[in-house]
Write a structure and sequence with these properties.
homodimer; about 375 residues; alpha/beta; 7-stranded mixed sheet; 13 helices; about 45% helix; disordered C terminus; DNA-binding
Chain lengths: ~375, ~375
DNA sequence: GCTTGTACTTGAAACGCATCAAAGGGGCCG
DNA sequence: CGGCCCCTTTGATGCGTTTCAAGTACAAGC
């Protein structure tokens, strides 16, 4: 099992070491018959180039690293899918690491990728990346996804404030008088959603708004608890519109309301954020504001490419992409899955319309349902 | 943006190059104050070890590569999840590459990982790995997942033949008289399922069996087409049990039957294979035979570890794990998702009972539903 | 004061490859 | 036949580490 190296191939083929190297990296420089001879020797000997050595000798390879917080979240997968396709389009490899919701691990993989002579690295960070000052003076281009970071950093993110605004406007359009926002704004993203809601409602002082903390983890159970509490209120104190800061929360709320005999959306409308089809387990159709993960992954790679090709800081350092309003049923959720995950280009086509370097817009994907 | 290297740290800290290296790799060899000094210098300078160089100089690093055909398939994610947890348990990193259903890309990433001085590589191959003879004499341990390969190779796979047997026995237990198997046996896995069905039914010559090809890609649409055809048959030529070789096919069949006014499971029972919750879009509860992806990923890493630690071919080279029979509804599918993907240890606990070095068993996860 | 031992530290060698200046070979022209 | 140029091949050099034999400093024991 002794590894065969380039010098073995050279000796065996009766050429020099540099020629074999050329056969691998600059085949056009070789005479066809030499190339053929070398290639045959390579496959006869089962030679595999040592990537570490070639990276060491030759500088960065054409590959990107992507650190995700989890793999089982549809949104992260959309990011991965978009990043993958865009990377391949430019001839780059994409390697993915699963940080498993663990700060330490996230940092670990990030450093790993940095040190592997990757051409660029992307993260969908769990916390704000500002905690680590070294991040900003990294030796390789790095782009943050789905999160806003301080000035020197690059990011591609959905405009969470706009999401809040969109959902508030939705509530207004549906004639809401009393809105309850459910969830703990544990992350920046959620805080911004709340902010967006407040800003949009500032113009409508007649609409009553309440924000209810849902417990540390924003679980479906937390949502259920609050839903139950809402259900038990006298009818005139009950909201007519509930916003879950995440779809998981919203789904909990819906379950509770339905269980307590309150009609959704008859008596109370419920909307969520995330566009997370897996959260919708009931048969009640629900509305969600969905950030375009595929597009975020794609733009992330584009940002990387720009830095690489121009050898200079890109002109555009921050990209905010719009979100889509969707009405989702349990059945339609499957369709979304197929369209976004199995055939992501469908989403791509739709959401590029909503992409913008400056601000977010809402588009309607209703045609898909 | 000039990268700071180990010699810079050494110079800056006033120690030698080897000492800095020791600080990184064998901290116990250093005097505490030296270690502290070096660590401070490292973070002051923002030094990041060059992974390529350390791999080159030091041999394999503690990391595994995993090549998956797609990321958006729940089963692959279960594999990734199981592999990740097991790898971390041993202190190894796991890097994932998405082959995007592309042979060439699969091969590409495989070679990439091989050449990166990974400690081991796993693949969930699209085709039988026998096509590439070089595979068998690879310089690093390699384990195939979810597929059987010829003698010299290592693999962990669900026993697909057993899956067929299980589903046939299910049909028998439900009193089936006429079974239709839907799908093109394009892959080894599917072929084995059909084989298992036939073997189980060999003991029941009174049961009529039909195998219907579903078109090249085994899509839901293919399933729908066949379902429609079945629906239009006169009642006495209609099967009372349909097996989809994949869940996607089965779901297509169900849609067609329901659309044509045939009751499922009243007039026709339908079962699938894969345990793929995303395929179940309807509200009709359906039965599927589910291979334990999480367990497969886990065992794959264990097989790798065994080869690494013993520095010799592992005693056990093939592991077949059992599958579970589940009854799935659209709502329950969500629960499965949560349990298997978000909290995979639940599945782990359940399926280890079914794991065996020798043959497959069926276990019932009904308690989860 | 000398020896022996212990606890750290040093720096040269090697890891496998890409690069590139230089050498080699062959054809063409004068 | 000599000179020139172009196409192809060569091999020494260095990439940033780890490793390890050799070195240093210091303490304890005699």
């Amino acid at each position: 099992m002794a590894k065969v190296k380039i010098s073995d191939v050279a000796r065996e083929a009766g050429v020099s070491l540099g020629t074999v190297s050329n056969a691998l990296n600059h085949p056009e420089k070789l005479r066809p018959e030499t190339l053929k001879l070398i290639n045959e020797t390579i496959s006869r000997l089962g030679y595999l180039p040592n990537q570490s050595a070639r990276q060491l000798a030759g500088g960065a390879t054409k590959s990107f690293g992507l650190v995700l917080p989890r793999l089982d979240h549809g949104f992260s997968l959309q990011i991965a899918s978009g990043a993958h396709n865009e990377a391949r389009k430019h001839g780059y490899d994409l390697l993915i690491a699963n940080a498993d919701n663990d700060d330490i691990l996230e940092d670990h993989y990030l450093r790993y990728f940095m040190g592997t002579q990757m051409s660029g690295v992307m993260v969908q960070p769990m916390a704000s990346p500002d905690w680590h000052p070294a991040m900003t003076k990294m030796p390789v281009p790095i782009v943050h996804l789905d999160i806003h970071c301080s000035e020197p950093g690059y990011y591609v993110a959905a405009d969470n404030e706009a999401q809040g605004r969109i959902i508030a406007e939705l509530a207004i359009a549906r004639g809401a008088h009393h809105i309850v926002v459910v969830g703990r704004a544990a992350f920046m993203q959620l805080t911004l959603r709340v902010l967006g809601i407040h800003k949009a409602l500032a113009l409508h002082p007649d609409i009553k708004i309440e924000v209810i903390d849902a417990g540390e983890w924003n679980t479906a159970a937390d949502g259920y608890g609050i839903g139950a509490q809402i259900a038990e209120r006298p009818a005139d104190e009950r909201p007519d519109f509930v916003v879950g800061l995440t779809d998981v929360l919203a789904s909990g709320v819906v379950s509770a309301l339905v269980d307590k005999g309150i009609s959704v959306p008859g008596q109370v409308r419920v909307a969520g954020c995330d566009g997370n089809p897996l959260a919708w387990s009931g048969s009640v159709p629900l509305t969600t504001v969905a950030p375009p993960g595929y597009e975020i992954g794609r733009k992330g790679v584009q940002l990387l490419m720009e830095q690489i090709e121009n050898k200079a800081p890109a002109k555009i350092k921050h990209i905010r992409v719009g979100s889509a309003v969707r009405t989702v049923t349990a059945v339609a959720a499957e369709d979304i899955n197929r369209q976004e995950l199995v055939r992501p280009f469908l989403l791509e086509r739709a959401s590029t319309q909503a992409s913008s370097q400056t601000d977010a817009t809402a588009i309607n994907l209703g045609a898909y349902l």
